[in-house]
Every structure is written in structure tokens, then in C-alpha cells.
Design a protein that fits this description.
alpha/beta; Spore Coat Polysaccharide Biosynthesis Protein SpsA, Chain A; glycosyltransferase; Glyco_trans_2-like; 18 strands; Glycosyltransferase; 2 domains; elongated
């Protein structure tokens, strides 16, 4: 059993006012590239933290600067070759060398206020599935002494915060009301989680080799793995300069890079609002597992009616029906390894789904959000990956189950009236 505790759904506010029995061991991983002055300022700020120095490890990971950065005594320096923008690989390298129970990721140009580490590490130290994003504010710090207290220098030289991000935190009550698209509010420049959970999720995807996107992809995987997403509004780190989205908005090259990032994420985050509306993603949002059918015709009606309601789903069928669905790449045999998904639907025996029924669509859209983890829709079990992951970790349920016994589903016999189904008269 992992140390710590958990809470239902995303209700991290149940831990408000609770402090760890002792300050956790924290490893701060600072990613750097050709920013010596900014790094000096960030390391000076880390030396002023209220979190005990004896419980703090600082690791700088250089992403291939022409010259190694200078770091003070007591700070560990790791380097990787300059093979493009490899922040994801740099963070993974730092995490692999870290000894702390809590990992805190910072960028070299993001300067923490004195209480930052204590406030960021509290939730992951209490609930190991907590993923905490700090409040990243912006200021023009250029030219200031590197040891100037950032809690004073930042407000004096403040630049606008991105309004979309402030609105996201406000409307979600600092991510307490997080949903399947709240990954958008997780920023790796100001991020903390337990070492255990980082390894469980699997680290950042090192195929990301351009600016942006790797933190959103990781946050989505973390959410699917049962993360408690939280915004620590009082854990402030100051970014030296404006937000990326606020710079040169009319620059076609910057807009093209943002489009490239968005296209890459459509395959990694296949949820509604992130995937294409018609084009299929490489990933799967929903996996349906059909256990049995009394005939090929019944299997066909079942799979066809399910895909009519959930066209982006992947369906796993018994091996005997592999040839029946060979032309549809969305259909796999049950002995194949299904892709990771946000939702798994277990269908014990073939049913026909009414195309106008709302219950299935609503269940798929809402399961895993709030405290809802499972929906029983007649014989169908609709399970969120978040609920299954928490159940596996803790050995008991931390999400609610909702039952709809009168769903618009018809059990199928060996002769389901296939011609009438296809023709529309049955």
C-alpha cells in the first residue's frame, strides 16, 4: 500500500488545514537552456525557501547549452545533448536522479516566492495522487539584482497574467471542479507531484521536441490515472517576461508552432473538445469489451449500434468474430491489447442500443468527473479509468456508482432481425 491517503473524486479540499506530520523531502528539478542570469535568480530564490533546506534537493538539468551553466555548491547539475527542445526528456532525467518523495518542477526563468515549496508540497505529501500547479505570475525582472526578493520585485514590475488561465482557475474553483479537459490548466513550469505518482503515470513523453504540449499530455495521462488536480493559488512563482501566448500574436511562425502542438495533442488526448470532430485520433477515448454474442448477426447489430452512438470508440469482440469486422479498424479482437482509454464499457452479452437514447452518451461524458466513477446501464458497466486506478491503489471505492436499470437496450437473440435492423423497419 502506498503511504498517504486519498479522497473521493477530486475533493482535495477535504485536506484543507491539514499539514504533513513532518516536512516532506522535496526534489526541485529546474530545466535550463542558455539562461544563466535567469537561473541565478531562480537558484537564489530557492535558497530563501521556508521549506527546510535539509529536506530540499535542487537538481538543474541543462538541455544542451553551449557552455555548462554555473550552479552553487549543493546544487546538482545534469546535462543532456542539444538535440532540439527536449524539456520532457530533461524533466525525466531530473526525476530519475531525484531522491525526494515530492518532485517540484520549475523552469530556469520561473522564480519562486519563499513559501512556494512548502505550499506546493503539502498536498502531494498528504495524498500521493495529488498533482499541484502553482500560480505563475509574470514580471519584467531583467536588470534587477539576482538576489532581489522576488515577492517584492515581482509585483513592482508585474506584467499581465493570461486571462484564459485566470478564468480557468476561477471557474473551476482552483481545479476543485476539474474535468476531462482540465489538463489545459496544468503548467510544467510550476508543477509538483509525488515521486511515486510520477513513476506510476510514466513521466513526460519524450517524443515532444518542440515548445509546449508535453505538460498537457502528461497532465491528461495523470488525470486518467486518478490524479487529484489542484491549483495552489498561494504558491506563487514569477516568470521573467510575458506569457508565451502574449508575445507576438501576429507572428505567423508562432501561430504555426501552436497549430503543430495542437495537432500533435489530438492523437494523445482523444477527448471531446481536444480530438477531431470527424477525423479519428490515434488514441482511444472509449474502449468497449463485448464478451459474448449468440451469433454473428447479433454481434454485428451490437457493435454497429454501439458505434453509431459512440463513433470514436474502439470495440473488442470475441476472436470468433474477427473476420466479421476485418474492414473496420475500430474493432479489435478480445485477445489483442486494447489502447489505454478514459472509459471502459463492459458488455457481457450482445445488446442493441437505441440510437436516440441519451443515457449511454451521458454516462460516457460524465463518468470520472466529480465523484461519479461507474454507471450501470442495464447489463452494461461503464467504468472510468480514474475510478479503476484508485480502486487498484487503495483496495476500495473512492467514486460513486450510478444505476440506470431501464436503459434503452435490447438483449439480442441468435436471430436479431438483421435485415430489418439495416433496412430500418425493425
Amino acid at each position: 500500500m502506498v503511504n498517504g491517503r486519498s479522497v473521493p473524486g477530486n475533493q482535495w479540499d477535504r485536506l484543507d488545514g491539514i499539514e504533513p506530520e513532518q516536512p516532506p523531502a522535496v526534489s526541485v528539478i529546474v530545466v535550463h537552456y542558455e539562461q544563466q542570469a535567469e537561473l541565478d535568480r531562480t537558484l537564489a530564490a530557492l535558497g530563501r525557501q521556508t521549506h527546510p533546506a535539509g529536506r530540499t534537493e535542487v537538481i538543474v538539468v541543462d538541455d544542451g547549452s553551449a557552455q555548462p551553466p554555473r550552479v552553487p555548491a549543493g546544487v546538482r547539475l545534469l546535462r543532456q545533448a542539444d538535440e532540439g527542445f527536449r524539456a520532457a526528456a530533461a524533466r525525466n532525467l531530473g526525476a530519475s536522479a531525484a531522491s525526494g518523495d515530492v518532485l517540484c518542477f520549475l523552469d530556469a526563468d520561473t522564480v519562486p516566492e519563499p513559501e512556494y515549496l512548502s505550499r506546493m508540497a503539502r498536498l502531494p505529501a498528504l495524498a500521493p495522487e495529488a498533482v499541484v500547479v502553482g500560480r505563475r505570475r509574470h514580471a519584467d525582472l531583467a536588470g534587477l539584482p539576482v538576489d532581489a526578493p522576488v515577492e517584492q520585485a515581482g509585483p513592482a514590475a508585474e506584467l499581465p497574467e493570461p486571462q484564459w488561465l485566470r478564468d480557468g482557475y476561477r471557474l473551476s474553483r482552483d481545479l476543485l471542479d476539474a474535468d476531462d479537459r482540465s489538463y489545459r490548466y496544468v503548467i510544467s513550469a510550476a508543477l509538483a507531484c509525488s515521486h511515486w505518482f510520477f513513476e506510476r503515470v510514466g513521466g513526460f513523453d519524450e517524443s515532444f521536441r518542440a515548445y509546449g504540449g508535453e505538460d498537457w499530455e502528461w497532465a491528461y495521462r495523470a488525470w486518467r490515472a486518478g490524479a487529484l488536480l489542484a491549483h495552489a493559488a498561494d504558491a506563487v512563482a514569477w516568470h521573467d517576461g510575458p506569457d508565451w501566448a502574449g508575445r507576438d500574436l501576429d507572428d505567423p511562425a508562432r501561430r504555426a508552432r501552436k497549430d503543430a502542438e495542437t495537432l500533435l495533442l489530438t492523437d494523445h488526448i482523444p477527448v471531446a473538445g481536444s480530438r477531431g470532430r470527424g477525423v479519428r485520433s490515434a488514441g482511444a477515448d472509449v474502449v468497449v469489451r463485448l464478451a459474448a454474442a449468440p451469433s454473428p448477426a447479433a454481434a454485428y447489430v451490437c457493435v454497429d449500434s454501439l458505434l453509431a452512438v459512440l463513433p470514436a470508440a474502439v470495440v473488442c469482440v470475441p476472436p470468433d468474430y474477427a473476420d466479421l469486422f476485418a474492414a473496420d479498424q475500430r474493432v479489435l479482437t478480445a485477445d489483442a491489447e486494447p489502447p489505454p482509454s478514459r472509459v471502459v464499457i463492459d458488455v457481457p452479452s450482445a445488446v442493441r442500443v437505441d440510437p436516440v437514447a441519451k443515457e449511454l452518451r451521458e454516462a460516457v461524458a460524465t463518468v470520472g468527473v466529480g465523484t461519479l466513477g461507474t454507471v450501470l446501464l442495464g447489463p452494461l458497466r461503464i467504468d472510468s479509468a480514474r475510478a479503476r486506478s484508485r480502486r487498484t491503489t487503495w483496495g476500495f471505492e473512492l467514486f460513486e456508482t450510478r444505476v440506470h436499470p431501464d436503459a434503452a437496450l435490447t438483449p439480442l437473440a441468435a436471430d436479431p432481425g438483421l435485415a430489418g435492423y439495416l433496412g430500418g423497419w425493425s
